[in-house]
Amino acid sequence: MKPIYNDNLNKNRNETFFLFYKTLLDNEFQSFSEIELFSKEVYYHNTDSEDLYVESKSLLEYIKETLENDNDIELSKKLLIIFPFYFFIKNKDDEKKQIVEIIKANKKRFKRCEQVIELFKFSFDVKILHEGLNNLKNEVYIFNYPYIVTQIYRILLEYAFLTLSNTIKFGDKDTVLDLVDDFSKTSIKTNLKKQDRLFLDFFYNNIADESEKPEEYIKHKDLFLKDKYLLKILFSAIYFNIKKDQSALSNKDRNKILNKIFHHLITNIFKDLRLAEKDDIDIIRKLKNTIVYLDK
After folding, report:
1. 174 DSSP β-pair partners
2. Among 11, 25, 224, 237, whose Cα sits 20 to 30 Å from the Cα of 47?
3. Residue 149 CB partners (closer than 8 Å, separation 6+)
4. Which domain of life is it from (predicted)?
5. Torsions phi, psi of 168, nearest 5?
């Protein structure tokens, strides 16, 4: 593991939200287990010791406390820090349901509460990915597993970052995405009024400092916030990183192996397909269409 950000939240609380995200995005991992260890090290900490990290509170307590007590920027950071590890939690359905109820009870903190609920409902079963990749390995396919892990980590982190940026309220109604739009309009003005200067000060101190280009951080928002594109981006992290090499496996049989992974992703991303079986005609057709799209 090569963690760029490996410190607790208290020591990085002066970072802007975008820089905070950027430091998380730069991490590289060898396995999903490393992501779990990294996440616990970051958001569970013992503030009395610089080198000792302990689980001082449950995830439920952590989320409830930040929703009820923290300001908008702290809330944004503290929710972001639990992703994408949260997606990989095993057999925690009851806990996830309780988290959704906590979010509903604090819906005033969000402009689009349903998007946040869907974010916390998303689940990524690492076991299904392992099985699919091992089956392909048995058929003489080759792949760089750490690279796939890191790619999935970064994709899911960006998904969480953009979803939170599109939902958490700053003030009465604005989200981070709204604030970036306002920044783009304000920063080009030649004669700034007092309220413009105050807004820019707030933006530079909390969202992105003057050395950053905030538009760069959100340029993929239309892709990550739409299910059909998110599916393709996530599946491509796997599909583009498996190589046939000397395998005699046909593409049709390869797709049968990939279909289990694809089915898992699509039934998590698309609400209307959550009960669909892996041999459902809609699932098979979407897999075929996705592969055709990626092969263009």
Report:
1. 170
2. 25
3. 29, 30, 31, 32, 34, 35
4. Bacteria
5. -70, 130
